[in-house]
From TrEMBL:
It holds the Pfam family Connexin. Residues 1-23, 278-313 are annotated as: Disordered. One of its GO terms (molecular function) is gap junction channel activity. This is Gap junction protein. One gap junction consists of a cluster of closely packed pairs of transmembrane channels, the connexons, through which materials of low MW diffuse from one cell to a neighboring cell. It comes from Pleuronectes platessa. It is a multi-pass membrane protein.
Amino acid sequence: MDRQTGRQTDRQTDRQTDPERGFQHRGALVSITWTSRAAGMNWSGLESLLSGVNKYSTAFGRIWLSMVFVFRVLVFVVAAQRVWGDENKDFVCNTRQPGCTNVCYDHIFPISHIRLWALQLIFITCPSFMVMAHVKFREGKDKKYESLHHGSHLYANPGKKRGGLWWTYLLSLVFKSGFDASFLYILYRIYHGYDLPRLSKCSLEPCPNTVDCFISRPTEKKIFMLFMVVSSILCIFMCICEMVYLIGKRISKLLRIRHENQRLIFADQHELTDLAPPRSMYRNRKTDPTLTDSQLSLNKREKVREGTTTTTL
């Protein structure tokens, strides 16, 4: 008890005699509090973005989102920032010439890996907002149509990837894969490959001669860099798979529609369907791009039945 009381009194006297230390202690607590709050806000924002984009994504898109937010964002926030935190401080060159170490550091690291990856994550997540904005535009347009036409809807499902939304979604995939590939190329060109040597030679001014410079923890940094590169390549592969899936599904749908149109044209040219209305009745009519194939065929059958009853009467 006496020892604990003595330690507490010593701490109080230290804070009273050294007010700067007390301010530093309180500043550290405040910074920790603000950091935890900011982290919570960031994670809530990422969670809302993930849940919002998942509604309109395919299975490949959900896998892409999981890879981005789990393998890349988590590794970037939790581990990579700590590994590259001492990048400038622990960069050492075997010279005492003023300015030589800073010049060599700027030559070897033109841009920090952390800042480059942060910029990459921002760029690859921005195209997802294009899809969300298009869906919100459709929902607002559908609400206006509903208010003007007494409950009838313009779109059966505003989030269905039909019509213009299909092109927006495909364009977002092109942007995602293009941004990832561009940043991989930039990283390769800046650092002349995906390798971090333990020893680098530098002979720039104001260095007196060729000096040796050493990077702190090069093996650990190389492992994280290769992990981020492989993650980017896998994300590009998933985007390409999703594009192939969407285009293949679109082509198969167009082929089915063409086959059905040919069948209807063949039926119109024969005596079995003399009572059916001609196909010119269905031309130049605006259809909902969000309807499925079964709904479109059902609408066509109902229109054919209506035309048949009118001709019979």
